[in-house]
Design goal:
seven-stranded antiparallel sheet, globular
Length: 150
């Protein structure tokens, strides 16, 4: 496995309506800025995570993120901050993970919510924590999984 670069263009998924409210969590690209030479700079990179939903305008915490592998076989930790409250992030992942072929194993809802899913030979654990009243910290950990024989 190789360390996977985090510098590609954000991919667009679908709009995701949150819990009947009017606010929407998206997975589309934010506006890019300009570099020193006046050329457009690419937005933050999430396109390499084609097998997991990433909310729009999420910011990757590079100090806490480590990714090994690529495509649908990556493992590691993806640390994000979002501009959505914990309850909306819970609804987003509960709805979107099955759309990416992840099967729910267990969920523990509390002030820090933990959601566990499986897909093929991998387990995904999503930890959601509030960060103020209207934002959340998302820790997305993916590891190999070998089902015990019966």
């Amino acid at each position: 496995m190789s360390f996977f670069s985090l510098g590609a263009v954000l991919s667009g998924c679908t709009l995701a309506d949150i819990g009947g409210g009017s606010k929407t969590v998206r997975t589309s690209a934010p506006t890019s800025g300009d570099d020193k030479n006046g050329s457009p700079t690419p937005p933050p990179a999430f396109s390499q995570f084609s097998d997991v939903p990433v909310p729009a305008n999420a910011r990757m915490d590079l100090d806490k993120t480590i990714i090994l592998g690529a495509e649908d076989g990556w493992i590691g930790r993806l640390a994000l901050t979002t501009s959505y409250p914990l309850t909306e992030m819970y609804s987003f992942y509960e709805r979107e993970m099955p759309n990416f072929s992840w099967d729910r194993i267990t969920v523990v809802r509390s002030s820090v919510t933990t959601m566990t899913y499986s897909r093929g030979g991998r387990i995904a654990t999503i930890t959601l924590q509030p960060s103020g009243s209207s934002s959340s910290i998302v820790d997305f950990t993916v590891s190999p999984y070998k089902q015990a024989s019966k």
